[in-house]
Design brief:
three-stranded mixed beta sheet
Length: 231
Amino acid sequence: VLRPPLIERMDEGIRDLILQHTASPGLEERVLIVDIDEESLRRLGSWPWSRDQIADLIEVLLADYGAQAVGLDIVFTEPGDPVGDARLAMLAQHAPLVLAQILDFTPRHPPVLKGHLTPPYQLAGVREGQAVTAKPAYGYIGNHAALSEAARCVGNIGYLPDADGVLRHLPVYSAFQGQRYPLFSLALLECAAQPPPADISLPDSSAAGLWRVPFRYPASAYLVIPAHELL
């Protein structure tokens, strides 16, 4: 049922306020956010960092801190320093490293087609026949060829905000040229499982292929560590 835009925004605004007041105040201990903040840039060099430096950060998280998986929400469309690129490719192929690619949900002429999409894969923990509507995409921004071909776990970080600019929905799967690509967080959960879980319970999505994010935790619930403290 279509409702007037003003009524829709009021309804969503009230829901946003309810979510803010009912979010769990406890610390979300399963996720660590590594922030390449201003202080890290001051101490370790301006952005962009070399691929070698990014590989150092990932290896520290995996080897020294025992991260079950690392999600790298940066897309490398062009090759960088050869040694660093080779290290990232090895980590993407043999370690629980999830790379990012961006699916574009806005029709454009011509479409955005940059870099290379990593071939889609079936998540091991998803039940066979479990149907989740995929959100149609019209373009993409992917990693350069060598990194894309080496990647084992890749997820989409593209999104489509609501009409008022607020992000309330995400595509669990995105569809492009007949293939389905998983959401970044779903790929991260799959890549972290050792061994993969017998089942991953996917959220229900609407006919539009979008899942309403529950926002059970406020931003303050997540532990954030500046990158320079790890390096």
